[in-house]
Every structure is written in structure tokens, then in C-alpha cells.
Write a structure and sequence with these properties.
Keywords: Cytoplasm, Decarboxylase, Lyase, Porphyrin biosynthesis. This protein is α/β, with parallel strands linked by helices. Helices cover about 50% and strands about 15% of the residues. Bound molecules: coproporphyrinogen III.
Length: about 350
């Protein structure tokens, strides 16, 4: 077993002392990097890139060569799970993800196969173990999955959605059908994430990208409760170290007190919630991650530095010295100039000495 050279990301998630604030970026591997576009070109397309362990490993490491990131994240996609359940994932240029089949009836849900992640998603597990050996202990590797609710939005709508017409219709007209789908997905995600942990993932993030589209009671019933079920089903320790779990509900900052009950070690926040309020609400019960508006990276070096310093001032306002991981409040976009994330990352490391030094 290789020892971890930089474990400040895991330590901060478990609220253990850190020397400086750990930082990574959601979607840190992607189209804003010319070397990513080059490797994707070699692979042919995005899905072929995900399915080839060498290519997936290469693009995972690309942002770590440019920036002093404190964690790597598996290069894959949340929609590999519905794909493995037989829906047929494809991408149309400029249109985002789509499925050949949708899930809209009781029969559609009953027809979903039981997932065996180790065999059905063997290419993901190969990517995890390949990346883990290539990292050679440099930083920890994050595994991930979509939340059942977020996966279900794509499966029921047949792709990306703004209105969530079909899934909300299912939620209010046939809630038992949606519950059956979400339960099936929760079991699939438990199997999938435990397989990632077995293959070498050292922390887990659950992306609930669309939980914030729900009303607060429906959020608990249709999104949060299934994440709670998943967390209860995950292996929490490997090789003598705890596997921290991060729950990220975009738009969930107003429900923090409730989200604490999921059993997650950390909660991710988007940029709409002030970190000083969030730190007071959670009062040391979980760690927090976030929450710079990704659009800040469109600004000048001076404006990025200013925004990062303000974020750290908020994060450490209540005097706590750990339990915080710097990140964006959602994924980095394809339009960011690759010079700008370096300013974000370096400012986090340098300025946090004011509070942790
Ligand atoms: O963070 C990382 O660097 C790891 C890679 C990662 C991808 N997708 C690669 C990707 C992760 C963690 C995801 C998660 C994901 N995928 C989410 C949850 C996070 C979030 O942003 O809310 C969601 C909702 C998806 C579904 C998805 N995949 C969409 C909507 C799209 C198209 C929109 C877009 O940004 O292009 C994808 C495609 C996708 N997934 C790309 C990448 C790098 C772009 C594909 C390309 O190279 O053309």
C-alpha cells in the first residue's frame, strides 16, 4: 500500500487539523483544457474516453499537472449507471446527454435489470485502479455517483431538462412508481460506489445536481432519503482509513440542517449560501465544501484573488480551523481560460495561512 503524500483533503473532510486549506474543482478535467480536447480526439468521443482506462487516467491527471490540486476525481460520468441499466446513453454535439429509452411507467421500472457494478461497469473499476496506481500516493482519489433523484431526472426525461415535466408528473400522479425507480437506483448506486471503494476510491461525492429543483418536503422524500439509504449501505473504511462521503445538493444550502441527517461527513454548497452562515448552522457536525461561483474564473487575476479571499474569510469567520475544503460551487465551464484556475488554487493555499498558519 502506497502512503498518501498529501492527505489534507481527507483530513479536512474528517475535521482533523490541516496545514493549509485543501482545494479541488468540480469537473476539473474537461473541455477548458486543450490537452483534454486532444485526448478526447484520440479516443474518438466522450464515451470512448470514459471507457478506456488509459485515456480516462490521462485526463484525470491533466489538471493535476497544471494546478496544485489536493485531490483527483475519477474521470467518468454520472450517467454510466443508467447506461448500464440498458437505457443507451449517447451525446449529440451541443445538446448534452440523451437516452435511447426512457423510464415512464410501472412496467418500465419493473423491467430494469439488477446492476452488478463490478461486471456491468468494469471499465469504471479499471479506470479507478489505473488512476490510483498512476497517482502513486500524490493525492487522494475521489469516486462519485449521481444521486437517485438526479439520475432519475435524466432517465424519465430522456436527457437534460429545465422544467422536469415528466418526472414531476410522475412524482405527483404516481409517486409509488417514482419511489420504486429511486429505490432501484439507490441499490444500484450502493453497489456501484462500494465497487469503486474496492477498486481504490478514497473519498466519495454524491452529485445531487437537481435536488434543488424540488420543494422542501419533496426534496426529503424523493431525493434526500435515498442518499441517506446509500450512505448507510457504503463501506466506510478501507486499509485502516475512513472513506469520507460528501453530499452535494445544488440549491440545497437552505436545507443544511436537514441534510446533516444523511450521515455524510461533508456537505457541498453552491455559491448562493454564505459560508459563514453555513458554518454556524452545521456547528462542527460536518465539514463543508465550496462554494465559489464558477463564473468568477471569467474575471481578472485581481478579481479572482479578491473573491477567493472573501470566501476564505467567510469559511473561517467562526474561528474553526478545519472542516473546510475549497471548491467551486458547481462544475468549471468549458469557457474558462486555463490560466485562471491556477490563481484560484494558489490563492486558497497562500491566503489560508492567515487562519491556519
Ligand atoms: O469532475 C470531473 O472532472 C470528473 C468528471 C465528471 C464528468 N461529469 C465529465 C464530463 C463528473 C464528476 C461528471 C458528473 C456529471 N455528469 C453531473 C453531476 C455534476 C454536475 O455538473 O452537476 C451531471 C449532471 C452529468 C451529466 C452530464 N454529462 C451532462 C449534463 C453533460 C453535458 C454537459 C456538459 O457539461 O458538457 C455531460 C458530459 C460530460 N461529462 C463532459 C465531461 C467532461 C463533457 C463531454 C465532452 O467532453 O464533450
Amino acid at each position: 500500500m502506497t502512503t498518501l503524500k498529501n492527505d489534507r483533503f481527507l483530513r479536512a473532510l474528517l475535521r482533523e487539523p490541516v496545514d493549509t486549506t485543501p482545494v479541488w474543482m468540480m469537473r476539473q478535467a474537461g473541455r477548458y483544457l486543450p490537452e483534454y480536447r486532444e485526448t478526447r480526439g484520440q479516443a474518438g468521443d466522450f464515451l470512448s474516453l470514459c471507457k478506456n482506462a488509459e485515456f480516462a487516467c490521462e485526463v484525470t491527471l491533466q489538471p493535476l499537472r497544471r494546478y496544485e490540486l489536493d485531490a483527483a476525481i475519477l474521470f467518468s460520468d454520472i450517467l454510466t449507471v443508467p447506461d448500464a441499466l440498458g437505457l443507451g446513453l449517447y451525446f449529440e454535439t451541443g445538446e448534452g446527454p440523451k437516452f435511447h429509452k426512457t423510464v415512464r411507467t410501472e412496467q418500465d421500472v419493473a423491467n430494469l435489470p439488477k446492476l452488478n457494478a463490478k461486471s456491468d461497469l468494469a471499465y469504471v473499476m479499471n479506470a479507478v485502479s489505473t488512476i490510483r496506481s498512476a497517482l502513486n500516493g500524490q493525492v487522494p482519489l475521489i469516486g462519485f455517483s449521481g444521486s437517485p433523484w438526479t439520475l432519475a431526472t435524466y432517465m424519465v426525461e430522456g436527457g437534460s431538462s429545465k422544467e422536469f415535466r415528466f418526472i414531476k408528473q410522475m412524482m405527483y400522479a404516481q409517486p409509488e412508481v417514482l419511489h420504486a425507480l429511486l429505490d432501484h437506483l439507490a441499490d444500484s448506486v450502493i453497489d456501484y460506489l462500494n465497487a469503486q471503494i474496492d477498486a481504490g476510491a478514497q473519498a466519495i461525492q454524491i452529485f445531487d445536481s437537481w435536488g434543488g429543483a424540488l420543494a422542501h418536503r419533496e426534496y426529503v422524500e424523493f431525493s434526500m432519503n435515498y442518499m441517506t439509504k446509500i450512505i448507510a449501505g457504503l463501506q466506510r473504511e478501507k486499509d485502516g482509513r475512513r472513506i469520507p462521503i460528501i453530499v452535494f445538493t445544488k440549491g440545497g444550502g437552505q436545507w443544511l440542517e436537514t441534510i446533516l441527517t444523511t450521515g455524510a461527513d461533508a456537505v457541498g454548497l453552491d455559491w448562493t449560501t454564505p459560508l459563514y452562515t453555513a458554518r454556524d448552522v452545521v456547528a462542527g457536525r460536518v465539514a463543508l465544501q465550496g462554494n465559489l461561483d464558477p463564473a468568477v474564473l471569467y474575471g481578472s487575476a485581481a478579481s479572482i484573488e479578491k473573491a477567493v479571499k472573501a470566501m476564505l474569510d467567510d469559511a473561517y469567520a467562526n474561528g474553526e480551523k478545519t472542516g473546510y475544503v475549497a471548491n467551486l460551487g458547481h462544475g468549471i465551464t468549458q469557457w474558462v481560460d486555463p490560466a485562471q484556475p491556477k490563481i484560484f488554487v494558489d490563492t486558497v493555499h497562500e491566503y489560508s495561512h492567515k487562519y491556519l498558519g
